[in-house]
Amino acid sequence: MRIDYLAQDPTLADFGKDTWWLVLLKIVFAFVFAVLATLLGVWFERRVVGRMQVRPGPNQVGPFGLLQTLADGLKMAFKEDILPKASDKVVFFFAPTISVISAVTALSVVPFGPMVSIFGERTPLQVTDVPVAVLVILACSSMGVYGIVLGGWASGSTYPLLGGLRSSAQMISYEVAMGLSIVAVFMTAGTMSTSGIVAAQSGNSSASWDIFGWHPTAPAWYAILLLPSFIIFFIAIVGETNRAPFDLPEAESELVAGFMTEYSSLKFALFMLSEYVAMVTMSAVTVTLFLGGWRAPWPITFWEGANSGWWPLLWFLGKVVLLVFVFVWLRGTLPRLRYDQFMRFGWKVLLPINLVWILALSGIRSIDGWRATDRWIVIGIVVAVLLLIVLFWPNRKPEPTETLQQQVRSRPAGSFPLPPMDLVVPPSPRLKRAVAEREQAVITAGADEKEV
């Protein structure tokens, strides 16, 4: 018996009909998923990075070190909670909770699976869905930065404030690139509903593929069709979640620990929780928008029951773990970018490429009468041009044509003078005085000994 996959896809009409206890159960499931993802995510990152660095990682507390993160959480809970005197007490207290709530709330519109039966009730494996669900995710992602900015400002210290300001600039820069990447998904799927976007990536839903003249019978992920959008979106979420190599708001090398410098105990743990929940949440969003959501990957799709029941939850979690591994992989291999490099990459590379890609996609969509082959040829040419621009765009400053001495001599009169290249810094007057006093003390002590 062949299973009707379309009957498994929840639509907007399937939401808002659950009983109160079922809604509460799904909310608790989303929250527990976020907390467990943090506990296992920290362990997973430390084990993977340890493997990359040829060391064992945590392996003593619990089997395979699985309870190490729980032990660390208990340790932080019993540490002394320090409140700086110069801090804004109320804002300092609530800032970490803003980041956690924003990260967890975004999971409410992420589809974990199709229609399932829970205690005899047919319901989508998703807390809720709305016609603008993806905009809800963007709003939660934007709100999360308020916790970081307010935490840095309320600490009453220089380095946390700098970290908070960096985070706000970082969010603004990469939020633009992330939003433009999602525009391509909207244009192709024809909806902003997360469950609708997942349904549009199935082989049975061909409406969203009409603009390309292709009606596939197998799952067709947007990561393949909208490859530039997928790459830019993933880079943007790495910057949005403050993960390495974009972890500039908490850069230890120049900001001690950034916005978290003055935090301790449970409030510090909440900031760590929000970072890992945001990483898992954005991985789940990437899976939903570009990797077919809960739908089984090929060749599992040959099994007729792969996209029904509770099996899709397994495929969804597998894809999320794979993307979390990529997050960890980036942290273990790439050095941190300089802040000017980071800003230049967002505004001068990601944004122009995204605009060109959206313009090309809109043009292909608006032209009628094209054959499928012609459309795919145009898409291939656009992608190839974008790749060539990325690979061969000059990223180095031109070498100066004048020497440093010539540049100094050519400066206009009255400009700020430059120190000479052979400058010898004289010793500090304070140091001179200290040496003279020490020598005088030695002479005085010697004279006293002679008198005795």
Average pLDDT reading: 82
The proportion of residues in beta strands is under 5%
Q: Which strand order do you get reading across the main beta sheet?
A: 1-2
> Number of domains in the coordinates?
1
Class inferred from helices and paired strands: mainly alpha
Q: Gap between N and C termini, in Å?
A: 114 Å
Overall helicity: 55-70%
Number of strands: 2
Unreliable stretches (pLDDT < 50, length at least 5) are 1-7, 211-217
Element-level helix/strand string:
HHHHEEHHHHHHHHHHHH
Globally, the shape reads globular
Give a verbal description of the structure.
Pfam families: NADHdh. It is found in: Cell membrane; Membrane. It is a multi-pass membrane protein. The chain has 452 residues and is mainly α. It has one domain. The protein has helices at 5-8, 20-52, 68-77, 89-105, 133-154, 158-189, 194-200, 222-225, 227-240, 252-255, 265-290, 311-333, 339-366, 372-392, 404-409, 429-451, and strands spanning 115-118, 121-124. α2 crosses α11 (265-290) and α11 packs across α12 (311-333). The longest helix has 33 residues, at 20-52. The chain is globular. Residues 1-7 and 211-217 have low confidence and may be disordered.
